[in-house]
Automatic annotation (TrEMBL):
Its EC number is 3.6.4.13. Residues 694-725 are annotated as: Disordered. It catalyses: ATP + H2O = ADP + phosphate + H(+). Residues 272-437 form the Helicase C-terminal domain. Keywords: ATP-binding, Helicase, Hydrolase, Mitochondrion, Nucleotide-binding, Transit peptide. Its main location: mitochondrion. PROSITE patterns: HELICASE_CTER. This is ATP-dependent RNA helicase SUPV3L1, mitochondrial. One of its GO terms (molecular function) is ATP binding. It comes from the Eukaryota. Its cofactor is Mn(2+); Mg(2+).
Length: 725
């Protein structure tokens, strides 16, 4: 047969609307149809031989093409195509069953205990610092039994302490620990927990769900949906932004429950200043500079201490104990530390005496519902959450102020704060272990990652819900796929809370799973050996980051110990060394400026070693490349490739931000204010600048445009054309 003729007829088969319709009737949506056809075409074109009946059909089609009396038609290929599709997509044979299992259109029906009672729903709506949570907690404390569900361990711990201080016995339940109020370990009638840990089977008089607007979170929103629909309590007190009122009301309409809304106003005034800070020389006691990357934290804190001022530092990957100590240091009126440098981790969970919030940048890296990384201006909700930390009610500052570091950002910040908060449109859902087990029964040979993919592709949700992002789950599923585990254990390992950008933590999860699969207990000695405990105080930033990763590994061990107690038996000992590690990290954070200096002096000439949190602001998903991590391995998006001063984040919007980073080449940077500022601050040397310029020119000659980003705007294209001519 002519290869060209066969290929032409296969493509004609693919384009026929009748064939696409037949595919859809047999469970092949557009995506599956395309994938099945690519595989089918590859099978025919690359196989040394095909089945006799398929060869006859192909021969008839090719020989009859263009003749009045056709010997065969491309539609005759469909039975062979469908047979091939069922081989690569086994679920096509049981599609009806799978569709029923993945039908997510009636989540309220998943919680029969909650549907069996008539619950009273009270929504406490208001901005930060309005007293909404206070009123809900007062009802929680006065009840015979209650549960508090919060987004952070810090918040759960705060309610736990507050309850027991008020002589209301309350247990603490997080993913990593359970602390009993009673000495005999008898469960107390009140529980403060992280929201993922709430029980939907235990009856309570009062339940409090905090930060309800996080029901739209692309990764964790399912936990708020589960609590809202499933908590078995006579009264449900919901706290959060007014933007979630309409969605909660609609969700409760589907359960036959009415929502009582109580609105609150901010207790202290918050003023947006008419001037930007512009220089760190203008800092005052009670100021908090908010950055959106760890790089900026390091840079700003060093510049502050270079001016003879002491500052506290808080960012997301710090252990909770270290965050509390830094907050205590900043709040202490007798401590010389009067300045705070923090990420948006201060937005919730910490009580801080802040007079003025200063946004170092209004551009923030985020992850959308599809799991894609984006760099965009902060939302109104985020800006209000952070700005609202200034002038906390009951603190020494009776009025809060907010501004920006740079004059250009102030206009946009005012616009952002003046806009109404976007209403919360949908609530998150996540497949349960039971649903995945039923899928596995029908598809016994599919991997867990494939099961999740198939589930999401077949799932049906109505307009009030969305399926949460499952990229982290799939990443872990693929990582441990080669390890022999039963499905339920594999599912638990894949839901472990870890940052997949931390190579050391991922490596330790792999070791945990491998040891677990051998049915060998993970003892305290085993853990110490693999984490090289005991560890010394950090001498540079790299070592501080590694200590934070080890702390995360201890968290991971404790998390798994509550799910597999016999295999992770030494939780008490691990908790003890984790507290010691917390103290070591606190020492490192208190000396963070010294660590930065040590890191830069130890770095090779022409390089600067600064570790980024999440991912650098100057790169998008398409700009990613592999760079060596601090353990010698290669890790995508793990570390920043350059030191960036705080002024580099100035942008009126995302388009202007990207344009600014793409249009200027290194020569113009060398002559411009950014390079001068970096030289002046000691973050760049003349030798480093010359080396960067040389590398830029080499890359330019080779057709590469430096720093991992594409220069795709018109002006740069014209400039490139001129140089080529």
């Amino acid at each position: 047969l002519s290869t060209g003729e066969v290929l032409k007829n296969l493509n004609k088969f693919y384009k026929r609307k009748e064939i696409q319709r037949l595919g859809a009737e047999n469970g092949l949506d557009a995506r599956l149809f395309h994938q099945a056809f690519i595989s089918f075409r590859k099978y025919i074109m690359e196989s040394s031989s095909v089945s006799a009946d398929l060869h006859i059909i192909l021969s008839d089609i090719c020989c009859g093409a263009g003749k009045v009396c056709l010997l065969g038609h491309v539609d005759d290929l469909f039975p062979f195509f469908l047979r091939h599709a069922k081989q690569i997509f086994p679920m096509l044979d049981c599609m009806d069953d799978l569709r029923k299992i993945s039908d997510l259109r009636l989540p309220p029906n998943w919680y029969p205990d909650a549907r069996a009672i008539q619950r009273k729903i009270i929504f406490h709506a208001g901005p930060t610092n309005s007293g909404k949570t206070y009123h809900a907690i007062q009802r929680f404390l006065s009840a015979k039994s209650g549960i508090y569900c919060g987004p952070l361990k810090l918040l759960a711990h705060e309610i736990f302490q507050k309850s027991n201080d008020a002589n209301v016995p309350c247990d603490l339940v997080t993913g990593e620990e359970r602390v009993y109020a009673n000495e005999d370990a008898r469960p107390a009638p009140h529980i403060a927990c992280t929201i993922e840990m709430c029980s939907t089977n235990t009856p309570y008089e009062v339940a409090v769900i905090d930060e309800i607007q996080m029901i739209r979170d692309p990764a964790r929103g399912w936990a708020w949906t589960r609590a809202l629909l499933g908590l078995c309590a006579e009264e449900i007190h919901i706290c959060g932004e007014a933007a979630a009122i309409d969605l909660v009301t609609e969700l409760m309409y589907t359960t036959g429950e009415e929502v009582e809304v109580r609105n609150y106003k901010r207790l202290t005034p918050l003023t947006v200043l008419d001037y930007a800070l512009e220089s760190l020389d203008n800092l005052r006691p009670g100021d908090c500079i908010v950055c959106f990357s760890k790089n900026d934290i390091y840079s700003v804190s060093r510049q502050i201490e270079a001016r003879g001022l002491e500052c506290a530092v808080i960012y997301g990957s710090l252990p909770p104990g270290t965050k509390l100590e830094q907050a205590k240091k900043f709040n202490d009126p007798d401590d010389p530390c009067k300045i705070l440098v923090a990420t948006d981790a201060i937005g919730m969970g910490l009580n801080l005496c802040i007079k003025r919030i200063i946004f170092n940048s209004i551009v923030k890296p985020t992850i959308n519902e599809k799991g894609e990384k984006e760099i965009d201006s902060i939302t109104t909700s985020q800006a209000l959450q952070i700005a609202g930390r200034a002038g906390r009610y009951g603190s020494s500052f009776k009025q809060g102020e907010v501004t920006t570091m740079h004059r250009d950002d102030l206009v946009q910040l005012k616009e952002i704060l003046s806009e109404p908060v976007r209403p919360v449109k949908a609530a998150g859902l996540h497949p349960t272990p039971e649903q995945i087990e039923m899928f596995a029964y029908h598809l016994p040979d599919a991997t867990l990652s494939n099961l999740i993919d198939i589930f999401v592709s077949l799932s049906q949700v109505d307009g009030l819900y969305f399926v949460c992002n499952i990229d982290d789950f799939k990443f872990l599923a693929d990582m441990i796929q080669h390890i022999p585990l039963n499905l339920r254990s594999r599912y638990v390992f894949c839901t472990a809370p870890l940052n997949r950008k931390e190579p050391f933590v991922c490596t330790m999860l792999l070791k945990f799973a491998r040891q677990f699969s051998r049915n060998e207990p993970l003892t305290f000695d085993w853990l110490c050996r693999h984490t090289k405990w005991p560890l010394a105080a950090p001498k540079n930033i790299k070592e501080l980051v590694h200590l934070e990763a080890v702390h995360d590994v201890f968290d991971l061990y404790l998390w798994l110990s509550y799910r597999f107690m016999d295999m992770f038996p030494d939780a008490v000992l691990v908790r003890d060394i984790q507290k010691k590690l917390d103290d070591i990290i606190q020492v490192g954070v208190c000396n963070i400026t010294k660590l930065i200096r040590a890191s830069q002096s130890a770095a090779a000439p022409g390089t600067a070693e600064v570790v980024s949190e999440d991912f650098p602001l100057s790169r998008t998903k398409r700009d990613t490349r592999l760079v060596p991590d601090h353990h010698g391995a290669k890790s995508a998006e793990a570390f920043s490739i350059a030191v960036e001063g705080p002024g580099e984040r100035r942008a009126k919007n995302l388009k202007a931000y990207r344009s600014a980073t793409r249009q200027e080449d290194l020569k113009s940077h060398g002559r411009g204010s950014l390079a001068n500022r970096l030289l002046r601050e000691g973050l760049l040397t003349q030798e480093m600048l010359r080396q960067l310029e040389s590398e830029w020119q080499d890359q330019h000659r080779n057709g590469r445009y430096g720093l991992g980003s594409k220069r795709n705007d018109q002006s740069s294209s014209k400039e490139t054309g001129k140089k080529k001519k």
